[in-house]
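Handout, section B. The chain below has 364 residues.
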Amino acid sequence: MQDTDIGNKENDINKEIKKLRMQAKLNKSLSMELERQKLSAVEARELAQNKTNELSAMIKKLKMESQLRKNLSAEFERQKEIAIEAEKTALQRKSEIEKISNQLSKYLSPQIYQAIFSGEQEVDIVSRRKKLTVFFCDIVGFTSITDSLESEEITSMLNYYLTEMSNIALEFGGTIDKYIGDAILIFFGDPKTTGVKSDALKCVNMAVSMQRKMRRIEDQWAQRFGLKDPLQMRVGINTGYCTVGNFGSDNRLDYTVIGAPINLASRLESIAKPGSILISFDTYSQVSENIQCIEQETVSVKGISEKVRTYEVDLGIPNKENVLKTETNNLRCSIDVNEISVEEIEKLLRFVKSAKRTVMAKVK
């Protein structure tokens, strides 16, 4: 009995010991798990802190970038406004410069103006020797004509004449040097040339065109300015080596030509017959194959030892007998029978028939 009790007690003790061991082992496992969880918690806290720091840094960076973008946007807007204002100012300045440039262009020959403003030619005191063909013309008896006119009429008449002649000069590519009262100085061969022969031919053809224009508008002089006699023009042309370029001072320059050939052209113009073109032998030798000329008497010119051979250009302008005219209170018509074509006659007939029908309709 006692042995049985002892055995039971041992079993109970062993169970209790086993239970205690299991509890101790469980406590140890729990302790290790708690330590592990503690470490995990510490790591998680550190990671969270790091993430928080990173997030704070990122937020700070984004705030700075946002502010920077805002500043940049404001700066871009400001620069845009400045650019728009600058563009407006530039356009205004461009318009002003173009206006001034257009005004200045009226004081320069178109060829010289284009060469200067395109940068091809510098505005310096410089000159060069070139073979040019020089043209001089003036109105016959201009001084006596002006004595019978008012200043406004003189200005209007002179401007009309200079405009008509200048348009022809530009059409043929001549460089208009200057206007000297009613006289015009034009030269060919600078700033651009198509060859001495071609330059001379253009110059003479220009002069022929001018004289023919003077004949065509002779009736307009009386109508516009009350002149008793139609205006006539004298022309002198010479070809030779001239000095051409900018002459003057640092403050004011004049693009012109100088030399003996210019003096000879002026001399030829002064002795030419009214309504004619007188050219030198040097010009004649360049254009003789294309232009019909009649040799005139030789002339003595100051500065030239030998007498100068001269030639008058055959203008082929019709005599008064070849011009048909009719005039009434309401009609004025002039026909050059040598120049008018059949097509022009037909056009005139159609015009007359149409005018007749209109007038007859009003009468009925």
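Note. The mean pLDDT is 81. Compare this with the example in section A.
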